[in-house]
Amino acid sequence: MVRPSQVIFMMFLSQAAASILLVCVLHALHRFYRRGYLREWTWAWWANAVALTGMAVAIVSLGDFPPDHPFRLATSALALTAGYAQLYWVLAGAYDVRREKHLPARARAWSLAACAALGAGLVLVSSSPAVSPGLRLFFRMGLQSLASFLCFGAAGVAVLLGCRSRRGWGRNMVAAAFFGYGLLSLSGFVSNLLFLAGRPVPQALSLASVEAILFLYLTGLGVVVWLLEEERQRAAATTQDLEQLAYYDALTGLPNREMLVERLWMALAQAKERGAHVGLVCLDLDRFKTINDSLGPSFGDVLLYSVAQRLRGATQTQDTVARLSGDQFAVLLSDREAPEDVQAGARSVVASFKAPFAIQGQELFVSCSAGVYTSPGGRSDPEELLKNSEMALEQARERGGGVLEAFAPAMNRRAHARFSVERDLRRALEGGELALHYQPVVGVASGEPVGVEALLRWSHPERGQIMPEEFLHVAEISGLMGAIDLWVLRTACAQAAAWRRDGMNGLRMAVNLSARAFQHPDLAARVQGVLEETGLEGRLLELEITESVAMKNPESSLKVLKELRRLGVGIAIDDFGTGYSSLSYLQGLPVTTLKIDQSFVRQLGQSAKSTAIASAVMLLAHSLDVRVVAEGVETEAQRAALMRQRCELMQGFLVSPAVPPAECQALLRSKPWGGEANAGEPH
Ligand code: C2E
Ligand code: MG
Ligand code: MG
């Protein structure tokens, strides 16, 4: 015959075993997911297993030891302490779920100490012989059942409310299990009260072991489902973030190029269906780089954000404003009835820049360059729209900015030609297709060579030799000019130094400077670097700039020219007479040479007017102690006229065109033009 205490013993032990199973599950999940509540609950069910085992042992030894036997006292105290500790850990886990932070270590230590004190205290108090068995049971189990009811109820609410992640099945299951535990505890408490009052305890309120085990499994299952749901939510959020990154610009929140292309496809399909028109405006801010450099990148960022807002305000709801890159934006004007509506939309986009931008307490006027392309009836693809509107934008930029250009087919052809030159030029620079030819500069009367001018040549593998005028403009707008300038300067200086080592003393090397190179802030340092690198003396180098370049920014020009003069480098004003410089202005610049343009030279002796101008220039030059070189001298008559004007130096086909270095060297040694052959060295 099985005794009731043995049944209870088995029930407690089976619950303890189920608790340990849950401990294993929670611990394994914690190792992987590192959640604070998993750790707390692992401890909670450890404590539960200990409490149940303690209770089982206490019950089975009921008849073997008197109530105040130390063994019974110790097992009861251990079981009670573990029971209260379980409640503490359940609450600590729930706190973690609700607040997403752990309880401080001090609070944990104090709470566990309080549980131990409570367990021991209650056992001691209840073990007194004066305490009735009903009251003893109430102290040892009834009070704990009440506490358990309250704690599990509170933990269930905390789990239901949660914090970060959305509620799902998993959390509901855990909360339901906790509420179930709470109710079981309440039933325990009620049966204790009845027992205390000497009333019969209904069977339904007795130790509901099976239910307890069920709630235990429900807790474990709920936690697993909860974590899986969290995982799925996180994966969905990550996908959304990735999508945002892939299709939207982080700074302005506007769609990026990829998204714009998607919207273009949709707008074009819609336009085709309805016979409507679609337009794309590409625009960029004028002077954005200057603003960014002078007012700082964070100011630039705020400006870009404000521009995005402004553009949004200037468009209709069905339109899309996108940021393509840096300061370049695009506006898709969809579903317009007529091409004129597209143009009007584009004009209002540009007009939105008329009002100043208020940024960080400053008012700033910013203009934009814009290009628009209209696709009639949606008969294009996004690529074509983007390409054509960007081409129109390019044209607007070339016109100096602040304008709206509509695409025209001629732009396409021009851009094609330019693109192929640009592509080939990049290859040329790396592949050694560029070369310098040298044109001698000689004395008009003596024919003695005094220097050479370095002129750039491009040996194109298919197109043959290409002259600089054909490709320098492309180099300038494609940003290749800086690299070309430096290469030319280095090569020319190295050649001059080599000739000097070869015994050609005093030969001056003239190098043309592009506008960009002249405006480079470190020009003087760059030139100094090249001189040191090649070992050429500064006085043997002359840099040629055109009058318009020198006049563009007179103050900074003066500063740069003075720096160059300090290195001993000569300054020549190239193509003199074709620009608008006033002779008096030139007096203020530290110029060493004036190169009279070929167009003047051509007219020398032909018209009284050009002869008078030439003699005035010559007079001025002599009074300023500036050398004068006549460019493009082709005939003997021109040379004679120059001689009459007392022009001392010349260059041109009469002497020699620009030729490769070896040929030029031979020419220089043999006195290239006029007088008797002079095998001596040039001075
Ligand atoms: P520029 O500096 O005024 O060069 C003189 C141009 O006149 C050269 O043309 C030269 O070949 C040409 N020329 C010389 N003598 C005569 C002549 O008797 N009759 C005629 N009809 N023409 C003559 P090129 O080489 O085509 O250079 C054109 C321009 O390109 C140059 O004008 C210069 O401004 C620029 N350039 C050339 N090389 C470079 C360079 O390395 N860097 C930079 N930045 N510009 C360069
Ligand atoms: Mg020149
Ligand atoms: Mg010239």
Give the cofactors and ligands: ligand C2E, magnesium ion
What order do the strands of the largest sheet run in, or round the barrel if closed? 8-9-11-12-13-14-15-16
Structural class: alpha/beta
On the 0-100 scale, what is the average pLDDT? 88
Number of strands: 16
The first-to-last residue Cα distance is 134 Å
Helix content: 55-70%
In short:
The protein is 60% helix and 14% strand.
Structure characterization notes:
By secondary structure, the protein is of the alpha/beta class. The protein is built from 24 helices and 16 strands. It has an 8-stranded mixed beta barrel with strand order 8-9-11-12-13-14-15-16, surrounded by 5 helices. Strands 2-3-1-6-7 form a 5-stranded mixed β-sheet, with helices on both faces. Helix 23 (636-644) links the parallel strand 15 and strand 16 (649-650). It is elongated. The termini are far apart. Bound molecules: ligand C2E and magnesium ion (2 copies). One magnesium ion (MG) binds at residues 574-575, 595, 631.
